Structures are given as C-alpha cells and as structure tokens.
Amino acid sequence: CDGQSYRLQKRMGLHSENHYKAEGKSSRAEIQCRGIYADLLVMVLLPCVLFSLIIYRCAYTLCTQMPRNDHSKELYDKYRETIEEHVNSMVLPSLKGKHGELMLRELVKGPPGVWESKGCCNRSGECCCFDCMLVFLPLYRLIVTFFNQIGQERNGEQIDQALLKKVLDIYVEVGMGKMDCYEKNFETMMLQDSAAYYSGKASIWISEYPYADYILKVEECLKQEMDRVSHYLHSSTEPKLLEVYRFVLSILRFVIISAESTIYNMCTQKPPHDYSQQLYDKYRESFEEYITSAVLPSLREKHDEFMLRELVKRWSNHKVMVRWLSRFFHYLDRYFIARRSLPGLNEVGLTCFRDLVYHELNGKVRDAVISLIDQEREGEQIDRALLKNVLDIFVEIGMGQMDHYENDFEEVMLKDTAAYYSRKASNWILEDSCPDYMLKAEECLKREKDRVSHYLHFSSEPKLLEKVQHELLSVYATQLLEKEHSGCHALLRDDKVEDLSRMYRLFWKIPRGLDPVSNIFKQHVSTEGTALVKQAEDAASNKKADKKDVVGLQEQVFVRKVIELHDKYMAYVNDCFTNHTLFHKALKEAFEIFCNKGVSGSSSAELLATFCDNILKKGGSEKLSDEAIEETLEKVVKLLAYISDKDLFAEFYRKKLARRLLFDKSANDEHERSILTKLKQQCGGQFTSKMEGMVTDLTLAKENQSNFEEYLSNNPNINPGIDLTVTVLTTGFWPSYKSFDLNLPAEMVKCVEVFREFYQTKTKHRKLTWIYSLGTCNINGKFDPKTMELIVTTYQASALLLFNTSDTLSYQEIMTQLNLSDDDVVRLLHSLSCAKYKILTKEPNTKTITPTDHFEFNSKFTDKMKRIKIPLPPVDEKKKVIEDVDKDRRYAIDASIVRIMKSRKVLGYQQLVMECVEQLGRMFKPDVKAIKKRIEDLITRDYLERDKDNPNIFRYLA
Amino acid sequence: NKLGRGNRDKVQQLMTITGARPVIGILKERLMYSTTSPMLQHPYADMILADGISLLCNDIQVDPQDIVMLAISWHMKAATMCEFSKQEFVGGLQALGIDSLEKFRERIPFIRSELKDEHKFQEIYNFAFDWAKEKGQKSLALDTAIGMWQLLFAEKEWPLVEHWCQFLQARHNKAISRDTWSQLLEFARTVDPALTNYDAEGAWPYLIDEFVEYLLENGIQKGQLSDWTH
C-alpha cells in the first residue's frame, strides 16, 4: 500500500460511481459487489489495476486448493498487515501533524478508505484498523482536545457541536456494538473532568455570589449540561453526568443540608427557643430585601418593551429562587405553617413578588402591553412570545384565581380595544362602503381571535370578540345596513351573494343582530314582489282593450315571475343565510304580503289555479317537457303555502279540473295525479279528497259507459238511435252546477230515459240529476251548400233542433220552448247568430240579442271546414266561486267554534278567536269580524251564551 | 217624551185591539177578588189589554207611554207589551203590596225610583227585550227596539242613543238579537261617550263595533257629544 493506492482507489470510486449512474438499472446488490471488489483490489493488492483480475483469480485459486496448498491463512494475515501498514503510514502521520480542533476534523474526515468504507471492508479488517488507530493514536491529545472544546463551551464559547458529535460517534462505532470503548476511553475521563470543572466553579461561585444568584447559576448549568447530552453526548451518559453534577454540587448540598438541619434544629426547640416564626419572617424578608434591592431598581430604570423583557427574566428568576428557598425551609412548610394554617412558603414567595413588584408595576406593564397590542393592530411586528410571557405573569400571580388577569389587565385591555375599534369604526363607517367595511370587520375579528390564541388567555376570547363585535357591528348596525349605495338593500339588489354571506356571518354572532338583516331581506323581497304585482297590474290595464286571453297571458307571466323570484330568494336563504329560520320566516312573510294582493281583480288563489290549468290542459299556452311540468307544479304548490285563501284556490282548481276532465282537455293523467299528490302532502288529505274523487269518478264513468254500450247492444229494441255518452259523477266531489229543467228535444229525452233505465238496473237507490249545461252534442246541419257536422252544447243543440219544426222563431218562443232563463237564452242565441258562425239569422240584424228579436235558420251558411265547433262562452263563474267559498267558510267557522267550545266549555273571546284562526289557518285566514258574527249567530242559536258577569267570556251550552 | 214613531204606532195599534173587556174595573171596588168574567170563553178573558191599560193608567194617573209602565210590567212579570194576564197582574200587585188604588198611586214614585237603581235598571232593560219582542221571534224588530231604546236611554241618559238609532236605520235595518240588546247597555254603561276606553279587540257584538266605526268615520266624538242634549 503506498500513496498511489489511495489515488487509484479514488479513481476507481469515481469510475464505479459513473458506472452506477450509467447502468442505472443494475440492482443495488450488484453495485455493492462492484464496490467491494474495487476496494479489495485497491486496498489489499497492488496499485496496478490492470492485474487486479488476475490477482483476484490468484487469490481465489490460492484459497481453494487442497489443505496443503491452501493459503487462506496467509492471505488473511496479509490482509490485516496491509491495513495496519496503511494506517501506520498514511493515517497516523496525517493525524500526528495536526493539533486541537484541526486534528479532530482530520480524524472525522479520515481517509475515506478507512472510515467511510465500513461495510466494505470485512469486519476483521475494520477492527484491526481501529485497533491500530487507537494504539497508535495519541489518545491523551484527543481527549484533551475534546475537553478543551467542552470547556470552551461551558465558558460560553461557540463550538462546532456537529464535529464533537461525529468524533463521539467514532468512539461508539469503534466499539462495534459494545459501549466499552466509549465508556472506558472517553466517558470516564469526561466525567472526571466535569467533576473537576464544576467543583472548581462551585467553590468560586459560592464565595463570590449571593445565595440567590448562586442558585440561578446552578439551575443554568444544569440546563446546559442537559442540552449538551442531547446535542452531542451519547444518551447513556445523561444519568451519569447528572450524578457527577449532583456530586459536585454537594458543596451546595452540604450548605443546604446544614441549612436545613440548622433550620430543623431551630424549629424543633421548646417554645422559648422555637424560631419558627422568626424563620418564617426571615424567609419573607429575604425575598423582600432582594426584590427591593435588586429587582425593583432594575425594573424601574427600564421602560416599555425592555422593561417587559426584564420583568419576564426577573419573574422566572424569582420562581427559581422561591423553589430553592422553599426547599431549605421545607420543614417550616411541613409543620409550622401547616399547624398555624399560614400561607405556604411558595405562596409567600409569590406574594412578595406580587405585593412589591406587581402592585407597583402592573399599571405600567399593562400600558406597555396594550401599547404593543395596539402597535400590532396597526400592522407592526411585535414580540408575541414576550407578551405571552408577560401575560402569563398576570395569570400566575393570581395563583389559580384569574382576578389579577381580569381586573388589572383584561378590563383595561377590553376598554382600550373598544376605544380603538370605536375610533376605527367611526372612520370606516364614513369612508368605506358596506362590503369593504364588512371585509375589514371580518379581518379584525380574525386577527383578534389570532391574538387570543397567540398570547392572551383563552378566557379572554369571548369577551374580546364581544367588544370588537359591539364596536364594529352593533353600534353601526343600522348605519351599515342602511348605507345608501352599498347597504343591505343594495347588496340584495345587486345580488352580492358573497357580501351577503359575510353579512350573515358577522351579524349572526351579535345578539339579535340578524333581526334587522332579515327585516331588510323581507322588505326587499316584498318590494320586489309588489313591483311584480304592479307590473302585472299595469300590463293588465294596458291590455284591457285587447283580447281577454292576452290578459290571461300576462297573469301567466306574473305567476312565472313570482316562481322565479321565489327560487332566487330561496337560494339566498339556503346559501347566504345557511337556512336560518329567521330568514325562512322573513321570506314567508314577504311572500305572504304580496301573494295575497291579487292582480287586477283576480285573487292570487285564482291566478295560481289558472296557471295550473294552463299547464295541465291540452294546448295550454306553455309547451314544457314532462320534467319541467313536474318541476313547475312542485313550485306552484310551494307558492300555495303563502296564500291564505287556500279554500279559494281549491274551489277554483276544482272548477278548472272539472272542465279539464269533463271536456277531455286534460293533457296528461299522470300530471293530474302528481299535482294532487303534491297538494295532499302540503295541505292534507281533506284538501284533495274531492279532487281525487273527481279523477276517480271519471275512470268509473268510462267503465260505466262501456257497460252502457254493452247493455244497448244486448237490447237492440230500446236503442234510441243516437249515440249517448253519460258521465256519472258523485255530487259531493264536483263543483255545484245549476241544473235547469231544460226542455230537451224529444230525441234526447228518449236517450235520457234509456240511460235512466240502464242505471236503475245497476243501482236502486241513486238519483240521477242531469246537468245539461255541461253536455255537448254533435249534430248534422243540412245547409244548402253542404251538410256539416256541428259540435255544440246541449243547450245550443236544443235551440237548433227547434228549427226542425218551424222556420222562424221569436225570442220569447225560444225561451218558453226551451224553458231557460233570459241569461242563458241570450247567451246561446248570441253564440248562434252574432258570433263567428251565423247558423241562425237574426231580425233585426244587430250585434246584440233583445227579447223582441226573431230568428231564422240560415240555410245558406257554409264554411270551408266540414266539422265546426261553435263555442258557447262560459258564464263567468268567479263570483259564484267566491260566494260558494264564503258560504263554506261560514260553516267552517261555525264548526270550528263549536268544536273548540265543546272541548273547552268556557273560553275568553280573544282566545276563542285565536284558536279559531289557528284551526282554520291551514285552509284560509278567517276575518275576525266574520268570526264575531258567527259567534253571535251561535249565541242566537243557543249554542253559546255570554257569561253573566263577564261579557268577554263565552260558555258552551250543551 | 221621546217615544219613537215606530213604537208609538205599535202602542197605538195595540191599544185599538178590540174584543177585550177591561178587567181593570175590579180595582175600583176591592182588590184581591177578581170577578169571574162573563166572557170566559173569549181568548182574552182574564187579560188586561190595551183598553184596560189605558183605564188603569187613568186610575193611577200615569201616562201609558211613561217608562214607569215598563217598570210596573216588570214587577208584574208581564210576558208581552200592553198586556197583563190576571195571574201576572194579581201576582205583581201582591208582590208590590198593593191592595187599593191609593196604594198603587202612592207606590208609583217608589217604582219610578227603582229605575235609578243600576242593578234594577239592568233587569228592567233585559226584561224589556222579551216584553217588547213579537212572541215566537228570537229577535226584536228594529222599530220596536229603537222605540224602546229611546224610552230607556232617556231615563239612563246615554248621549249616543240618537246616533245609535240613526246608525241602525242607515246601516243595519234588521232585527236586533238579544245579545246585541243586552250588550248595548253594557256598552252604554262602561264605555265613555268619547270612546276613549273602547277596546276594538273586545268581544263587543259586531254591530257595536260597526257603530264605533260609524262614529269615527263621521267624526262624531267629543266636541259634538258634549253639546248633545236630549
């Protein structure tokens, strides 16, 4: 092994590294093998790499011969020799030449071949290498150097801890699993050195420093030694080092023990010589003296942040001193104090600090802290850890009670906070828009919360936030919410969803803070809704002149818009206002306000019913997909919740439903059923039972009709010769219709008779009432140009059939022959003679019907279609519906009052009205006056009486 | 005397009912033994009717339209206006301790004083409803009611009575229920004429509520009322 081997090895290393990089795929094991191989070549054999293969082969051959020729042993020895030689010639000289820290560095660095190839050399090789090193290494120099280093650190110098760590690692590694080497060669000496060092120091300190400072020094050293262990000494050293440390400090221990025993002696004497009290006093005095002489002056001369730092330091020192001193006087604590129930030593120590330092300085400290907080609020960087420590003093000084923190610091801090934010808010509210203000407020709240988590006591959080919220939000709530161009109104107007969410978050936290927000929300929604109503009114009055169905369209648009409005604000409630009940209520109330207004004479109940009709009937004004229809119906039903006159809706709906069903106008049976299900869910079974009955009736009627047809085909002799379809309905389910005794034409009378007979065969006890006003007839008109099929109502048909027997008929004749009222006659004659199709000619030829008119069959009438439908304008049913509903309401109120009184027997007027409104509220909102009238009516009918002494109380008369 | 026109007519009408023989003659001789009427079969036998009453009024020197006649009827527990059955008449006189015309006359001021008694007035007021209404009807015809109110509230001095009657004729024009009748006295007693203590939320019959609305609408309050005299 000569110098070249090292260089070669380096080159080889480089080579194998390149090789490794080039053949990235080759496995880890392979690379390891290559490394070993290369190292062996370099270390054990000649520097000539070219022969390496041959030499390896030789070695292999040498080792694999028969015993006699087996040269393994020699090879092994040679191996060791080689390494020893390398160490002797290369490593040691390089180490010998260096001193102190440099030598340590050289050692740590070492020749890579030796040091960093562990795992490359075989075990024995490594071992012998270290052996050599340790034998030949100037051990004492290493140790001395080392101790110098530690010594330097102990004296407060900066040393390279990492270096020491590495050196010590060598000691550990050289042990190859055992700690012998580390313990024997290093640790023992280190411990001795430490002992020597500390005994030297201790003896100096004890004489130089006052007692208290000595204790502080000791604490400090202990901490440093602990650090040392954790930084570079082996962890197993810790307990031993502590042992030494304790031993060394036994000087102190000795002092303590002697002090303690002295104290013990002083305290255990018979009364005249019992110095417990004096000692106790002395204990206190020593603190007081120290504080007045050392602590206070040092604090007094400092200010602001420096003063705070000093205070924190002094406080931690003080705590150490208290701990030590109370240990000396431990005996006092155990007996004297316990017996006299005096404050404990620990407490006395803290009390001293509190009385002397804290009481003098807390104002100053507090102001300094608050000014720091204010600085931070203004965006400056401050030492948060310092504040945390200072505030901990406030907490600790209370010894478990928060009084001091709360009274001496928190209260003023809160006041200051309030003042600070009140100042800020008064500026912001003038300068900033509402969203900006809210952003700032939210940021402030966040920062204050942060502040608490960083250095304030956690108990301050609610109070602090409450103050900030109060100053920023509560005080200016109205001003903020009502800012003209950016307040809550404007946010709602401009759909500022994010700002609204923020507003909700902020005001949610302050008590009753959401009330004004929800009020504004309500106001806004109801204004928007009222605007829609107004818009619809205007549109309706503008279009009055035009056709009627155009007005109807306007109303359709209105309902659509209301639905859209509802969708929009429902989304607000869900998203911005997190489904808060207050906002649900506001939305409901807002909708109730304008939903019950009605547009141009139509109540919204009617509008909704018409809207449904339009969707559900064939050829309605809106073409929608099935899903869209379902969705729209769903929404209509939701809107219904806001309408107080649900019974009115039901009545209108029933009317429209009847038309759809009877005239086969319903577009889709499933939709009919689906909306009924929805209504049932929302308003209860009672609400929809009639409507459901109607739908069922129609199914039954179809069945009935096929039975009837079968009956006719079985009895051909009674067949009237006219196709007849009868829809049998259950009276109670359907709206009430006028049933006049129309004089039917003879042909039709026969039909009716036949059906009645058929029906008798099925049921005995049912009475059929014929409602001709709902009937339709297909009749053939034999006009001169061509024969046409006319689709007319039964009324119209009856009127036309009169002309089979006479050519001209007067108004009066028609009326008497048909037995109809004036209204009906006028209506149907108008439809036949003045409308689009003039089947009859009228004399005189005017646009209106008068009782003196005469009519003649218009045989010249023709049309390009073969089949025409002659519409008969329906009677305006609105008034009747409303009357019906009114009547029903009277019964409902009566029933409700009687129900309530029956169960309560005696009840005050107010309560009766209240309960009545509550009971009926699901269907309609009864007028209080109406209830009063019903009550009086019930009194007259002897259901109720007034109490004799109190006219405000009613009694139920059974 | 402020008897309403309608009521006067009615009284007039009743007074002209014929076919009744005055039983009142008995008073002139001795009380407590009534004669067996020669007209027992007659439906009005044992009855004092309109004629009889005017005779009686003469005897006791009281105007038939004096409110005291109502009070006397109340004492008699008379079922119908302008009629006393024998039983009612005799029972009433017994209860009043009257056995001669002199005593009857002497008793009049006392009976009149009873009207001043709040409690008794209320009883008389409520009695008047049944007394005045048509038999078999549940409510009191408006004209009769107005006449009775004018009579009664002339005694009671309720300043709104004229307005009330005007209101009824203008807005209501229907019969008056017993409830409304009895509640009106309550209203007159408890609510001051300026309506300051009227509670719109109270259980007053709706007619009274509407009356108050009528008063407010027409601005008939305070000022006008203080001038109002009867």
TrEMBL record, chain A:
One of its GO terms (biological process) is ubiquitin-dependent protein catabolic process. The chain crosses the membrane at residues 36-56. Pfam families: Cullin (PF00888), Cullin_AB (PF26557), Cullin_Nedd8 (PF10557). GO terms for cellular component: cullin-RING ubiquitin ligase complex. SMART domains: CULLIN (SM00182), Cullin_Nedd8 (SM00884). InterPro entries: Cullin, Cullin-like_AB, Cullin_CS, Cullin_homology, Cullin_homology_sf, Cullin_N, Cullin_neddylation_domain, Cullin_repeat-like_dom_sf. Keywords: Isopeptide bond, Membrane, Transmembrane, Transmembrane helix, Ubl conjugation, Ubl conjugation pathway. One of its GO terms (molecular function) is ubiquitin protein ligase binding. SUPFAM superfamilies: Cullin homology domain (SSF75632), Cullin repeat-like (SSF74788), Winged helix' DNA-binding domain (SSF46785). Residues 603-833 form the Cullin family profile domain. PANTHER family: CULLIN (PTHR11932). Belongs to the cullin family. This is Cullin-1. It comes from Escallonia herrerae.
Automatic annotation (TrEMBL), chain B:
It comes from the Eukaryota. GO terms for biological process: protein neddylation. This is Defective in cullin neddylation protein. Neddylation of cullins play an essential role in the regulation of SCF-type complexes activity. One of its GO terms (cellular component) is ubiquitin ligase complex. It comes from Escallonia herrerae. Gene3D superfamilies: Cullin, PONY binding domain, EF-hand. Residues 19-216 form the DCUN1 domain. GO terms for molecular function: cullin family protein binding; ubiquitin conjugating enzyme binding; ubiquitin-like protein binding. PANTHER family: DEFECTIVE IN CULLIN NEDDYLATION PROTEIN, RP42 RELATED. InterPro entries: DCN-prot (IPR014764), DCN1-like_PONY (IPR042460), PONY_dom (IPR005176).
